[in-house]
Amino acid sequence: MKFVIKVVPRSSRQGFAPDSEVGVKCYVQSPPEGGKANKELIQLLAKKLGVPQTEITLLYGGGTRKKMFELPFDVEAQELIARLLA
């Protein structure tokens, strides 16, 4: 499954929140330098979804706030958002 998520780097907190534009955004504490924010985002996604980090693939958006990921399973977008926000 492919999905888009918005990331907010250098945040004072970590976690997921609803977003009117893409459905869900993720706050990470790492700066967007050297892939640190992307790495933290993948760690949070893996933990929340219960999959290994190596099974989450960043397809595009490595240098932008909107990123597209591919997951190793199929699920409806609304169900994925609900799992991330739970």
Task: Please tell me about this protein's structure.
With 86 residues, this protein is α+β, with helices and mostly antiparallel strands. It has a single domain (2-85), classed as Conserved Hypothetical Protein Mth637, Chain: A. The protein has two helices and five strands; from the N terminus they run βββαββα. It has helices spanning 36-49, 77-85, and strands at 2-8, 15-19, 23-27, 57-60, 66-70. It has a five-stranded mixed sheet. It is globular and about 30 Å long. The model has no long low-confidence stretch (mean pLDDT 95).
Helix/strand layout:
Blueprint: E1 2-8, E2 15-19, E3 23-27, H1 36-49, E4 57-60, E5 66-70, H2 77-85
Parallel strand pairs: 1-3
Antiparallel strand pairs: 1-5, 2-3, 4-5
What CATH architecture do you see? 2-Layer Sandwich
Q: Structural class, judged by helices and strands? A: alpha+beta
- In the sheet with the most strands, the strands line up as 2-3-1-5-4
CATH fold call: Conserved Hypothetical Protein Mth637, Chain: A
- Share in helix: 25-40%
> How is the biggest beta sheet arranged?
5 strands, mixed
Order of helices and strands: EEEHEEH
Distance between the termini: 19 Å
CATH hierarchy class name = Alpha Beta
| Gross morphology | globular
